[in-house]
Amino acid sequence: MTRRLLLMTLLMAATAGLSACGKRGDPHLPEGTVGTYPRAYPDPATVRPNTSAGNSGQESEEQTN
């Protein structure tokens, strides 16, 4: 009896822990607010534009031969 009660308690605890898992929707800001708390990340002044569009920094076989 004690073993069965312990097993049921553990099973219910595991089930309760999993019941909180799940996907929520995207967070939405309240109307009339701007989402830049306390500033934009990453700092726009430190971001450099990507100048190597499509190039991973490695030469292709055509360029090396």
Tell me briefly what this model is.
Residues 48-58 have a biased composition (Polar residues). This is Putative small lipoprotein YifL. The chain is mainly alpha-helical and 65 residues long.
Give structural notes:
- The model has no long low-confidence stretch (mean pLDDT 76).
- The chain is an all-alpha fold and 65 residues long.
- It is built from two helices and no strands.
- Helix content is 34%, strand content 0%.
- This is Putative small lipoprotein YifL.
- Keywords: Cell outer membrane, Lipoprotein, Membrane, Palmitate, Signal.
Compile the SSE list and pairings.
Layout: H1 2-19, H2 61-64
Number of strands: 0
Helix and strand pattern: HH
Biggest sheet statistics: none
Shape: elongated
DSSP strand (E) fraction? under 5%
List keywords for this structure.
65 residues, mainly alpha, 34% helix, signal, lipoprotein
